[in-house]
Q: What sequence folds into this?
């Protein structure tokens, strides 16, 4: 049986003034896929995620989530449908306790009016929410730091917390914008292990600047360059694509091994 399309864009574009950051992108992800989007800095990758998730509206084209046109839906409504993302720069509140970052994420996105009121009134949060959040922390290895001030976490742990926040929203599609950026080698290994685990139960799209970091994580790579999707395929084929190699390494050659240097 053919897999269901989770998200699809048709002729998607975004113009900032005179500058076209995303140009005519036709993109599709099937249920259960773990796929990557790579491209040099400034290629338009984050802008593409911002369009998918409703941070700002497209200037052309459309976005379809489970077949529904969500192009004009608010970011909150897209989260409610199961589209959840993380940001290139870790986006957690340093002033809160670790567990409270999760509780806030869940309650803020909750459709339940009583939950929102409990947040505004500062009253005790429902036990099942606390339990779910504690479980999400457990799943990323942060259970023992649940009551730490978030400001005391390392950058790697903050990245883990951000992924836990995304998971606690029970996504159907998880969009990770450069989840490995700014991390040490040891932290990268931890986050890669976590992504490997979550992709078993979720459809995941990962933006990554460095090809070498992602080839073993995904089954398909799309390449963005100057706002356009210029190539798409299995990671090994993409690495050998002369156009992709020229964009990354500024040369056309036949060697298609992964060379992290110069990425
Ligand atoms: P990437 O994530 O691939 O590095 P971005 O999507 O962040 O690239 O940026 C693509 C281009 O769009 C860049 O030239 C950037 O300066 C521009 N851009 C992104 N967001 C905005 C914005 N809000 N206003 C104006 N230009 C933007
Ligand atoms: Mg980016």
A:
């Amino acid at each position: 049986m053919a897999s269901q399309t989770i998200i699809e864009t048709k002729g998607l574009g975004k113009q900032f003034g005179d500058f076209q950051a995303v140009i005519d992108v036709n993109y599709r992800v099937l249920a259960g896929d773990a796929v990557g989007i790579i491209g040099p800095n400034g290629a338009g990758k984050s802008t593409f995620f911002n369009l998918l998730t409703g941070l700002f509206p497209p200037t052309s084209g459309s976005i379809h989530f489970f077949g529904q046109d969500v192009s004009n839906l608010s970011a909150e409504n897209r989260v409610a449908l199961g589209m959840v993302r993380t940001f290139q720069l870790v986006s957690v509140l340093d002033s809160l306790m670790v567990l409270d970052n999760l509780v806030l994420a869940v309650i803020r996105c909750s459709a339940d009016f009583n939950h929102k009121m409990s947040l505004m009134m500062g009253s005790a949060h429902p036990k099942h929410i606390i339990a779910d959040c504690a479980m999400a922390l457990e799943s990323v290895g942060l259970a023992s730091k649940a009551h730490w001030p978030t400001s005391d976490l390392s950058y790697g742990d903050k990245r883990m917390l951000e992924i836990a926040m995304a998971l606690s929203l029970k996504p159907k599609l998880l969009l990770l914008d450069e989840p490995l950026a700014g991390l040490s080698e040891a932290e990268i290994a931890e986050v890669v292990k976590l992504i490997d685990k979550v992709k078993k139960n979720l459809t995941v799209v990962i933006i990554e600047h460095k090809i070498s970091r992602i080839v073993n994580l995904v089954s398909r790579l799309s390449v963005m360059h100057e706002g356009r999707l210029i190539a798409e395929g299995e990671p090994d084929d993409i690495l050998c694509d002369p156009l992709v190699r020229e964009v990354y390494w500024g040369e056309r050659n036949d060697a298609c091994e992964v060379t992290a240097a110069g990425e």
Q: What stands out?
A: The chain has a mean pLDDT of 89. The longest helix spans residues 155-168.
